[in-house]
Amino acid sequence: MKKLGHYLSLIKFSHTIFALPFALTGYVMGLRNTNAEPTIIIGILLCMVFARSAAMAFNRYLDREFDAKNPRTALREIPSGIISASSALRFTILNSALFMAAAYFINLTCFLLSPVALLVILGYSYTKRFTSLCHLVLGLGLSLAPAGAYIAVTNSMHLAVVLLSLAVISWVSGFDIIYALQDDEFDKSQGLFSIPSQRGRKNALQISRVLHAFTVILILGCGYLYNLHFVYFIGAGIFSLLLFYQQILVKPSDLSKVNLAFMTTNGIASIVFAGFAITDMVIFG
């Protein structure tokens, strides 16, 4: 049980709260347009767990030397010796294989797209080595949750789901920039790329705000295109207010509330949005 706890800590299982509500929203959006068996949610959840576990374990494996040098991350499982690098790599391979297997049992489209999904979510770990656009790649990885869930149910795609996925990209990119403020000096010293290390804290926060403004527009557009009702838009409004609150929590000269902005606010925002969106579709059909 203790070893399981170490692996859950390695993959930051608690951060599943960011993508899972959007996957559930994509799932319910799919049910609205098809007669698929609701039990397909089991396959979707398995794909999410395996894909995310593979991505996080690989990120920790690849960044182990940087994590060991950074005082903020030096106590993570691999640099502290709790989990060996080889074990983390085997864990990555196992979860990647399980992800593809789960996708196979959903439908052929999901199976054929599964290597592409793995390329994105595993490839993200390399991007900080050569581009400050790494935040967008992380957002792209999480945006596969609603899109993948919708494809799993319908074997097709809808423009509203595309907008929802784009909203996830801009939302995640925006809050990842805020999170990266903590390591701007370290990244610069190691030749790593991030928007804070390349553009400075003030400019990074401005970029984050622009991305979150796009998120609000895309969320509203998704509801409009999918003919959703007032319940959805109430949830979208609360979600938008939480993004605004997140932005005023962090200042270039004061990073003391980064964790509140990153984990607590975003976790609540994703749950609230999904709760209202799903309630709207359940009530109004």
Short characterization:
By secondary structure, the chain is mostly helical. Helix content is 76%, strand content 0%.
Output the keywords:
0% strand, 285 residues, mainly alpha, Tetracycline Repressor, domain 2
Which stretches of 5+ consecutive residues score pLDDT under 50?
none
Q: Over all CA atoms, what is the radius of gyration?
A: 19 Å
Give the full name of the CATH homologous superfamily: UbiA prenyltransferase
Strand content: under 5%
| Structural class by helix and strand composition | mainly alpha
Shape designation: globular
Largest sheet: none
Q: How far apart lie the N and C ends?
A: 43 Å
CATH topology: Tetracycline Repressor, domain 2
Element order: H for helix, E for strand: HHHHHHHHHHHHH
CATH architectural designation: Orthogonal Bundle
Whole-number total of structural domains = 1
Number of contiguous helices: 13
Mean pLDDT across the residues is 95
Q: How many strand elements?
A: 0
Helix content: over 70%
Query: Under the CATH scheme, which class?
Result: Mainly Alpha
